[in-house]
Amino acid sequence: MITAHTRVAGVAGAPVRHSLSPLLHNAWLAEAGIDGVYVAFAPPQDGFPAFAEGLRGGAIVGINVTIPFKQQALAAADFASDLARAAGAANLLLFHENGRIEARNTDGEGLLQALATQAPQLDVKSGPALVLGAGGAARGAVAALLEAGSPQVIVVNRTLDRAEQLAQTFGSRVRAFDRPDWAAPDAALVINATSLGLGGGAGPVLPWKSLPDTAVVMDMVYKPLRTDFLAAAEERGLTIVDGLEMLIRQAIPAFEAFYGSPPPPQVDERRLLLDVLEAGG
Ligand code: ATR
Predict the structure, then answer these.
(1) Nearest 5°: phi and psi at 104?
(2) How is residue 211 annotated by DSSP?
(3) I need a labelling partner for 82 at 20 to 30 A (CA). Which of 60, 72, 109, 200 fits?
(4) DSSP letter (8 states) at residue 148
(5) How many whole angstroms separate alpha carbon 126 and alpha carbon 214?
């Protein structure tokens, strides 16, 4: 039931209608009996700063931020967590009642926990990681991988300039390329952090044969769950990690920040979201 006390949070993106976050957070809210609601916002492509500024003062408690606003979200904040600053991107904004806007990044935590769950054999310290993309999602991944001890992160992006800027922010352990046709005989991990494949299109193309048999392949895209990218990795016999696990894991600290308590353990998040994905929702 919505009351005059309802705590409102949400997700902002463009596009945002594909997002499963409202379903996930509202299932947790219902199970926990919290007077709260979580909705999707679609600010115009060029309207994120005005949107965030309008929420200053605590009209709503906070938002998750998705494509393409993660870097702008950090810029909109008055202060930020170390991880958000390291990433240069935020997936979580909190609108404090004193008017201050706080930025956090829970994507890195979500990413590492998804890897630990679906590829427990992976040791990110054992070899280079290849990150496809150079937007906010990629930045979050690079920050988390470096923190977890990855010896080298290779960033590949269509726009080389953007990959180079990213590499510059993170220093000598990160290298930038604009095409993935380099040999990667010792890659421990490959992550798609581009929006390629979102909504069912073709995913990034990789020289699959040059990857070692031990490489773990992850896609941040979760709609569809079995992206072309993951299908190609599976065909090559590699361990895959899907974006749904990361979505769930990054949402847990966000929920806690919005509503003051961790999500209730009774909800089978994966089943809930898989049902929707399988029904084409
Ligand atoms: P986010 O902040 O969520 O990461 P983003 O900043 O829009 O979103 O980043 C999207 C990523 O997908 C970028 O790396 C983008 O490449 P460019 O920097 O060259 O734009 C990548 N991307 C999107 N569409 C692409 C396409 N058709 N081919 C290759 N890369 C693409």
Answers:
(1) -135, 165
(2) S
(3) 60
(4) T
(5) 11
Encoded amino acid at 47, one letter: G
Q: Are 258 and 35 in contact (CB under 8 A)?
A: no
- Is the minimum distance from the CB of 134 to ligand 1 under 6 angstroms? yes
Domain 7-105+250-278 annotated CATH 3.40.50.10860: yes
Q: Which residue of 72, 93, 158, 223 sits with most ligand 1 atoms within 8 Å of its CB, as the best mutation to test the pocket?
A: 158
**Dist CA 61 CA 122 (whole Å):** 37
**Which spans in the chain are helix H?**
21-32, 48-54, 70-76, 82-87, 107-118, 136-147, 160-170, 228-235, 243-259, 269-278
Return the CATH number of the domain spanning residue range 108-241: 3.40.50.720
Distance CA 279, CA 257 (A): 31
Record the pTM. 0.91
Regarding the beta carbon of 158 and ligand 1, being less than 6 Å apart is answered yes
Using DSSP, state whether 36 is helix, strand or coil: strand
Give the distance (Å) from ligand 1 centre to CA of residue 81.
Answer: 24
Q: 214: Cβ–Cβ under 8 A, 6 or more apart, which residues?
A: 188
Distance CA(16)–CA(39), nearest Å, equals 10
Residue 70 known to be catalytic: yes
Length of the chain as a residue count: 281
> Which residues does residue 94 pair with via DSSP β-bridges, in sequence order?
62, 102
Indicate the domain borders of the chain. 7-105+250-278, 108-241
Given a cut of 90, whether residue 223 has pLDDT beyond it is no
* Structural contact between residues 131 and 154, judged by C-beta atoms closer than 8 angstroms: yes
